[in-house]
Amino acid sequence: MKNILLASTSTLFNGDYLDYLLPVLKTHFKNCKTILFIPYARPGGISYDAYTKKASDAFKIIDIEIKGLHEFKHPVEAIKNAEGMFTGGGNTFVLLNELYKNNCVDILKNVISDGTPYLGTSAGSNICGQNIKTTNDMPIVYPPSFNALQLVPFNINPHYLDPEVNSKHMGETRETRINEFHTQNNLPVIGLREGSWLEVKNETILLKGNLEARIFEKDQKPYEIKPDTLITF
Amino acid sequence: MKNILLASTSTLFNGDYLDYLLPVLKTHFKNCKTILFIPYARPGGISYDAYTKKASDAFKIIDIEIKGLHEFKHPVEAIKNAEGMFTGGGNTFVLLNELYKNNCVDILKNVISDGTPYLGTSAGSNICGQNIKTTNDMPIVYPPSFNALQLVPFNINPHYLDPEVNSKHMGETRETRINEFHTQNNLPVIGLREGSWLEVKNETILLKGNLEARIFEKDQKPYEIKPDTLITF
């Protein structure tokens, strides 16, 4: 009964917040008047209120009201009662840490598994993988575990970035980093480019958007999959 | 009595491994016939043997022999007895995790504080800060703690990268990431560009190389410091 959208990014270059996704979100959240927004990831250190306002402004365009999880005294109850949910991007470590602190990990996993429509962007998508070991974020806090919501049987690398051929920078490319992941872990990883998202309907997972995604499996050469490819591992 | 070099990178664009540092290393390790190499960070998943060979080939040019820490049955004893030490770059999480696993954190901290000459590059520099919360690396393993060797009173961000003005990528810039760090932490951070290193002689810390470094302090605008600036926080 899962009904999940996992987007690489909230915002495209030169775009407004969530604008490229709004037509899809209108359908995805068609039975929701109000959506619970999880602002814990705080991109750039923005406040919960400011972040919730940003989400609210975007969802207003499709006539959906947003409530921030931080506005509730009992976050677990708020998640239980939500008609739909959206977790915004920012820092994945901060996000997961707050979810653990507020005892939200299990309940989130349960209600999303039971069918509450969910949208994640960036860090909010990352936490739906098996663990956060393929995030691009800086580990600015130490969460009690890297284990995540495990709603899909793989890991996600959002904002996937192809190597820049003319770069003179000697830091690791994204592909090198994911290869390093596979020296320590066996899980497949989906490199999701900005503009792509995964649509999860029950156990059926499709790549959506106009771009290909790059798939990394242990001991295999990375390969590309086309939009509308069914993802099965 | 500290005698430490902390380099942003081992290799410059179009350069060979460690070549730009060799004249400095010749002086730094002038009393060493053999240096203990810590290969735990495994850049790109390279084997300990292959990584040690790479370090060995570079140090051969200045007539210094390299022994890999993994070649010793008792790593703690090997560190105690080392004439000098070098920790190479790669994945900071893997490096710190292995140091904890092999009980090397305290002994490393002690011998380096007591004067064993040390070189770190990239991840090997990162671990000399207070913690690894400003690494750029992917968190591919979960170390028992993010606390590091704490040999300098700040954190390091190696391979520091200025924002690319023409980028269409919506992932966070390095500066944004470090600003996010300061929403959760108070430590100063030194953004060390490729080609820069810190020279630590006892408690005197100098920026070396030809480039400026970018300093991030909580609640302050980031600022640049020139080569040979004394670093005091």
Automatic annotation (TrEMBL), chains A, B:
Top-tier EC class: hydrolase
The keyword Cytoplasm is assigned to this record: yes
Protein name listed in UniProt: dipeptidase E
Subcellular locations according to the entry: Cytoplasm
Gene Ontology MF terms in the entry: dipeptidase activity; serine-type peptidase activity
Native organism: Aurantibacter aestuarii
Alphabetical list of PANTHER family matching this protein: ALPHA-ASPARTYL DIPEPTIDASE, PROTEASE S51 ALPHA-ASPARTYL DIPEPTIDASE
InterPro entries the record matches: Class_I_gatase-like (IPR029062), Peptidase_S51 (IPR005320)
GO biological process, one term: proteolysis
Membrane-traversing stretches: none
Keywords: Cytoplasm, Dipeptidase, Hydrolase, Protease, Serine protease
One Gene Ontology term, aspect cellular component: cytoplasm
Catalytic activity annotation: Dipeptidase E catalyzes the hydrolysis of dipeptides Asp-|-Xaa. It does not act on peptides with N-terminal Glu, Asn or Gln, nor does it cleave isoaspartyl peptides
EC number: 3.4.13.21
Sequence similarity: Belongs to the peptidase S51 family.
